[in-house]
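#structure-requests
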Amino acid sequence: MAAEKTHRIKDLDTLKALGHPLRMKLYRALYMAGTATASQLADQVDEAVSLVSYHLRKLAAHSLIEEAEGGRGDARERWWQAAAATISTKDEDFRDAPERATAHAAVTRMHARQQNELYESYLDTQAAWDDAWRSAAFSSEYLMSLTADELSRLGKELNELVVKWRAHGKAAREAGDTEGRENVAVHMYGFPFRTWSPGGKES
């Protein structure tokens, strides 16, 4: 997988290919594994291998995943990997037609639900993690007054920080530094909202 290659989805067919609950879960599992077969991923998502294979082929058909070079293990199964370090979608790429805007909104909502489910899964099992991990985990909300340009700049700065730490974790794992290392999810949202004053005016 190319270092920090980003696949920005702009066409509706690819968006719809990704916008399936199981495919989103498979992509996330594959990304964290680095490379994996359909059988391995089927165990993670608790689905039949044949079904997982079908959905992996759909993701591959839209260049979201690809066959891994030099696959190891059983030659009867393909080894897959994510085709890019990051997949992104932008509202601005789909607001030109009602069908495209509706599809993008639906996929974005599904992604947000899965992120919330992942965090709730951590909360459900929080007691099973040791004290160091429970102290390290965080959940924060920051409220501020910004312009659209300032919010955009903030998002870019946060992305640069995450990319730095992701590269650090990837390099450490590839160097064999795996002791005490776990999969970690960091979810970020930045969006405008309006509040209402007692007098009924927006602020």
